[in-house]
Here is the input.
Amino acid sequence: MKAARAILLTAGVAGMIYAVIGVLTDDGTSPLNQLLFTVALAVAHDGIVLPLAIGVGVLTVRFVPDWARPPVQAGLYASLVLTLFTIPMLVGAGRLPDNPTILPLNYARGLQLVLAAIWVAAAVWAGYRWRDRKPVAVPTPGPEPAP
Here is the structure.
């Protein structure tokens, strides 16, 4: 395990060094803009996304039964990733008025259909987990203990 960690750490550091060298030396890059974007991304992640994820996790643990928790968590995760990747198409980033072939589809409808498929799959999975759950043993009242 230690060797795998060392290899992954080395690869990660090498990738970061390569990226920094590229930002500093390539034509057409703005190191200041790249730095500002990186800082804004870190602030947005740590100040908005991370607290929301923690809050959703707390609510899931508190209000979702044990047998349904893994399907709900998987559905939430898949929905989030899909929605984040779809945002540029939903807002029409890159669409040009003189070229209708760029982003020609109804991406909102497509997102709704795929989200529906995700949650149907999560519901089926939860149904199987509900069916296969082990009943909770309820103690039966016995005779009174002698004083």
User: Anything to note?
Assistant: The longest helix spans residues 31-63. The two ends are 58 Å apart (CA to CA). Residues 1-63 form one domain.
